[in-house]
């Protein structure tokens, strides 16, 4: 939950205040609100006072924070990193493609993507309707400068289910019909793209297709994989060659 709170704060320009220390040991409590291509950053104190400074006036720890802040800002800005999703259908087969387009001069590295495909299952002959979830996970080493990366989800089949039903007409033999039991329909896909961390808090972006999906369903993580059971070693008695 923390990563999404952080994302919301960033989108409103509400980065947390922190204590910056300069090379003389003097401290101020401020937050970064903007930056320029020349490397300078604009900091804002709690009283609203703002100033442009070069990061090299700060301690090594604070300079590292400024670098992390720049990378995080690149990741969270749709102007810098555009993330879109498309549906691909082939008959009853369905998958989605996630496209990440880097519009900056810097590589964006180490992205982790979780996704969930939501399938609505309607029961036509009694029973309760349900939502089937298909989870997946993708790693992206980097999106190169002014480059793009496309990643596909796994394919899912939108298969209806049928049952055999026998009907007897008057005195004749029974007739067997195939009767549809359920209807399936794709609802959409929800991607969670995790990027760099800032102050140990991972930042994330959500992409839903269609956009209203998050109002209809709840995100659930994939169930944990079953633990491997280690079987005891089976020891056989030695074979006597003379017995053969």
Please identify the top-level CATH class of the largest domain: Mainly Beta
Low-confidence stretches are 1-12
**Mean pLDDT across every amino acid position:** 83
Annotation field: number of helices: 3
State the separation between the terminal residues, measured CA to CA: 68 Å
Helices and strands, in order, run as: HEEEEHEEEEEEEEEH
Residues in helices, as a percent range: 10-25%
Task: Provide an overview of this structure.
The chain has 244 residues and is mainly β. The chain folds into two domains: 2-76, SH3 type barrels (Roll); 82-211, Immunoglobulin-like, CATH 2.60.40.10. Helices cover 13% and strands 50% of the residues. The protein has three helices and 13 strands. It has helices spanning 2-11, 60-76, 213-216, and strands at 18-21, 27-35, 41-45, 50-53, 81-90, 93-102, 108-123, 130-143, 148-152, 156-157, 161-168, 174-198, 201-209. The strands form three sheets. Strands 7, 8, 11, 12 and 13 form a five-stranded antiparallel sheet that branches. It has a four-stranded antiparallel sheet with strand order 1-2-3-4. Strands 5, 6, 9 and 10 form a four-stranded antiparallel sheet that branches. A hairpin with a 2-residue loop joins strand 12 (174-198) and strand 13 (201-209). The radius of gyration is 28 Å and the shape is elongated. The model is unreliable at 1-12 (pLDDT under 50).
């Amino acid at each position: 939950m923390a990563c999404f709170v952080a994302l919301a704060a960033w989108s409103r320009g509400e980065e947390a205040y922190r204590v910056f220390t300069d090379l003389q040991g003097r401290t101020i409590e401020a937050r970064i609100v903007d930056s320029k291509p020349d490397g300078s950053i604009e900091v804002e104190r709690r009283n609203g006072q703002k100033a442009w400074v070069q990061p090299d006036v700060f301690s090594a720890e604070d300079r590292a924070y400024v670098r992390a802040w720049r990378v995080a800002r690149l990741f969270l800005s749709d102007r810098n990193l555009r993330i879109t999703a498309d549906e691909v259908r082939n008959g009853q087969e369905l998958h989605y493609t996630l496209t990440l387009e880097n519009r900056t001069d810097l590589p964006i590295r180490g992205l982790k993507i979780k996704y969930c495909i939501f399938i609505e299952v309607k029961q036509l002959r009694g029973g309760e309707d349900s939502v089937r979830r298909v989870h997946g996970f993708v790693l992206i080493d980097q999106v190169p400068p002014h480059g793009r990366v496309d990643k596909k989800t796994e394919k899912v089949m939108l298969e209806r289910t049928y049952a055999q039903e026998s009907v007897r007409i008057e005195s004749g033999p029974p007739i067997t019909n195939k009767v549809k039991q359920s209807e399936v329909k794709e609802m959409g896909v929800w991607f969670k793209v995790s990027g760099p961390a800032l102050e140990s808090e991972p930042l994330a972006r959500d992409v839903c297709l269609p956009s209203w999906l998050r109002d209809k369903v709840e995100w659930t993580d994939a169930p944990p994989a079953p633990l491997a059971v280690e079987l005891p070693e089976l020891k056989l008695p030695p074979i006597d060659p003379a017995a053969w």
